[in-house]
What we know:
Blueprint: H1 4-25, E1 27-29, E2 35-38, H2 48-77, H3 84-89, H4 93-116, H5 122-132, H6 137-142, E3 147-148, H7 156-193, H8 196-232, H9 238-249, H10 252-263, H11 265-293
Antiparallel strand pairs: 1-2, 2-3
Organism: Panagrellus redivivus (Microworm)
Keywords: Membrane, Transmembrane, Transmembrane helix
Transmembrane segments: 7-29, 49-75, 96-116, 161-184, 205-229, 241-267
Amino acid sequence: MRVYKHVLILELVGSFTFDVILILFRPVLLWPMRAAITTGILGGQPYSVFIVFGAALSGEAMIVTIQVIQFVYRASATYDNSHWIRRMLTKNVSHVYYCYFIMFSVLICIHLAPVLTNIDDPMKSQALFLADFPALKPLVCEHPFLTGYHPEVSNFTIDAILYYGMVMGSSTPFVCILAIVFFVSRMKLMKTTETQKTYTVHLMLFRALVAQNVFMFVFLALPLTVFVYCLYFEVLWGSYIATLSLVVISFHIIACCLSILWFIVPYRLFVRKCFRKYCKIATTVSCVVESKIAPSG
Length: 297
């Protein structure tokens, strides 16, 4: 539990970062084009669309990285202390961070490749979109930095990252099912080899992990898969579905927090204790302030 809380914190940081990116840029998608406008406080700049695309891919890389590490950590914890993966991950917090940053560095290079290799004049892409869709002219007048990745100026890496997204999204349900089957088999074995107290702790964490996997599929993998498919196939009505997908994704951190607090009892009790302590302090301060401002006599 001492090390595992760092894994959970990294998971929440990744989800929170992704939500913050969407809030700050607030992209509005323009299907069937691979274009968008940014209406957030960091939008309204010539390269805002390219920046938000890279930032969103970076946030997604953070989430994928910590999900893999969380699975490996929980799997290693079901083995005995002599197993090398358990000794590496569950005994030293720094090893978790080392693994995280190494894997994240690899994924970030893959995810940012289409962004870094497609930095082009945004106005050139906008002119090409206007030539294809003249009806965009009023929107361009209102949002002069409308741009995106036009097929004539973008290279194959854009399609490659979309292929990657479709494969990752489509395979997530099967990976989650296989992971649950694996943990069920490990839990059955642990029931006969571990003490009741240890088994109860692992059962609690297993239930939390199942809930997190379900929420990850519903609030992350499924909407991202829909988003990528709509973008790749340039679905005419894809803007509505893709925008709704981004809204659903923003609920992932809330669902993740609730599953952690609901199933992991020590964390729930700690948060409850902190909340009660805060309420008690707030009540005491309020009473002191009221007593000082009350008229005397």
